[in-house]
Design goal:
The chain has 324 residues and is mainly α. The protein has one domain: ABC transporter involved in vitamin B12 uptake, BtuC (Orthogonal Bundle). Helix content is 73%, strand content 2%. It has 15 helices and 4 strands. A hairpin with a 2-residue loop joins strand 2 and strand 3. The radius of gyration is 20 Å and the shape is globular.
């Protein structure tokens, strides 16, 4: 009879995130029980985090490659602006198509500039951040752009008592988890982030992998734009000026290394929920906005300290494999 070796439990960073999420929920609900009501959790906590989550899922790929996308927020607004104007001039279906296509174009421009022209990601996406905002301002002349039928449906409709955008968020979370952890493309992304030159010598199309990551980021910005416009009914050109900071915060809080090569989609999902819990929870507790920012920054800092401590305890060869 063969004795099965009992696997030793290992505390990972994802477990730390899960504990932080549970602690936040328990503390906030103990102060205000309204927070745990299903209607509040779905319609406020989770619903308000979908746009950031969608862009964070794709940004996880970008950051694992060793890149960064500072333009995702303004790309989202440019998508919303062009889609809204198209819907007003043609129809809702055209507005939907243009919104998503504009996102792909924005991401493709970033990817080609970085992977083919070899301009550093920080410089490229910083430039396109202002470029997309400038185009959005020029198109609208500073005026608001209003929602259309397809966007209103994605931002406000309910299916089986759950908002549509939450269903979209769940589907995208599953798809991105599978793509990153169970596909050849996901393995190529990790290889590029760990050592781009070695990946190239191994026969991996590194420019193609990078371009695809940024294009996915643009596509998710377009999808987020549809939900964002539908939720708020109108947007202005500067509405997403700081959105990229929240997206990057979620990805880094989720344990993705800003240096590339290490990351986990499950961590990004948990980090999205943590940020959503803090945003909504501190508001329901009537905490001033300035204090909310301090609390969020403190949670991020403590989480990153835990991440570094866990990483140092592991042998170098096992870090990427066992951190999560």
């Amino acid at each position: 009879m063969i004795a099965l070796k009992k696997r030793k439990f290992e505390f990972s960073y994802n477990y730390a995130l899960l504990i932080i999420l549970a602690a936040c929920v328990l503390f906030i609900s103990s102060q205000n029980p309204v927070f745990l009501k299903s209607g509040y959790l779905l319609n406020v906590v989770v619903k308000n985090s979908v746009e950031i989550g969608l862009m964070a899922f794709a940004a996880t790929f970008v950051i694992i490659t060793g890149g960064i996308d500072l333009s995702c927020g303004t790309a989202m607004i440019l998508c919303a602006v062009t889609g809204g104007i198209t819907a007003m001039q043609i129809n809702s279906a055209a507005g939907l198509l243009v919104t998503l296509c504009m996102g792909v174009i924005c991401g493709l421009l970033n990817g080609v500039t970085i992977a083919i022209v070899k301009v550093p990601p920080m410089v490229t996406t910083l430039s396109t951040m202002f470029l997309y905002m400038g185009i959005a301002r020029g198109i609208t002349k500073g005026d608001s752009v209003y929602t259309f039928d397809a966007s209103t449906f994605l931002g406000n409709a309910v299916i089986f008592r759950v908002p549509v955008q939450i269903w979209i968020g769940i589907i995208m979370a599953v798809l991105f988890c599978v793509l990153l952890h169970n596909s050849s493309y996901g393995r190529r992304i990790y290889a590029v982030g760990l050592n781009e030159n070695a990946a190239r010598y191994a026969g991996i199309n590194t420019p193609g992998a990078v371009i695809c990551a940024y294009t996915l980021c643009g596509l998710m910005a377009g999808l987020a734009a549809l939900i964002w416009l539908g939720r708020f009914n109108a947007v202005k050109y500067d509405a997403g000026a700081v959105m990229h900071l929240r997206v990057i915060t979620v990805v880094v809080l989720g344990g993705t290394s800003i240096a590339g090569g290490i990351g986990d989609m499950r961590g990004t999902i948990l980090a999205t929920l943590i940020l959503a819990t803090l945003n909504s929870g501190l508001t329901v507790l009537n905490i001033p906005v300035n204090t909310q920012t301090v609390v969020q920054g403190t949670v991020l800092l403590l989480s990153l300290i835990v991440f570094e401590l866990l990483k140092r305890k592991m042998p170098a060869k096992k870090r990427a494999e066992r951190m999560f």
